[in-house]
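Homework help board

Subject: predicted structure for assignment chain

Our instructor gave us this sequence and asked us to write out the predicted structure in token form, then describe one feature. I got the tokens but I'm not sure how to describe them. Can anyone check?
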Amino acid sequence: MLQIEKGQDIKQELLHRYKTILPDELIKIWEDNGLARLMGEYLKAVNPEDYQELLKETYFRGNISIPILVTAFGDIVTFEEGQYIGMVKYKNGNFVMLAKNFKRFIQNLGDDYFLEKYFQIPQYIEAVNKLGKLEQDECFGYVPLLGLGGSEKIQNLKKVKIREYIELISQLVGKIGM
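My token output:
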């Protein structure tokens, strides 16, 4: 069973605006838990409007993608073409498709192979133990950036603001997928 922690409530206007656009399962999470945190706070539900412009500016499919979740490492999970779940992995400069639909994505979150392949759960646990829990607008970022010769070591992680981290990486590598 997926671990979900209640987050900040979602305004009714936002729910109404996305009810026919986003998957029913995500809308149900929003209704019951607001901007919930999932998987021990590794994933955070986000207001798509807070990240939509940033996604358009930094991801080649940003104009057909809706940001729905952010990982503890500043990756944006997207809803694309009305069904697919993808992830823009800014720190690595690439993107992956995670599932054909949101229901399958949620099911995959219970699969150890899937988690190991796409997420950094052990590093996250270590980072939380070392640096503490993240705020809604924070992620763990590598300093120096991986693209500037940094390495994926725990001692190189710092708490950073998600948007600023993504913007900085994008200035370095350009639009993801181009």
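Reply (TA_rk): Your tokens look well-formed. For the description, you could write something like this. The helical segments are 12-18, 24-33, 48-58, 102-108, 112-118, 121-131, 162-173. That's the kind of observation they're looking for.
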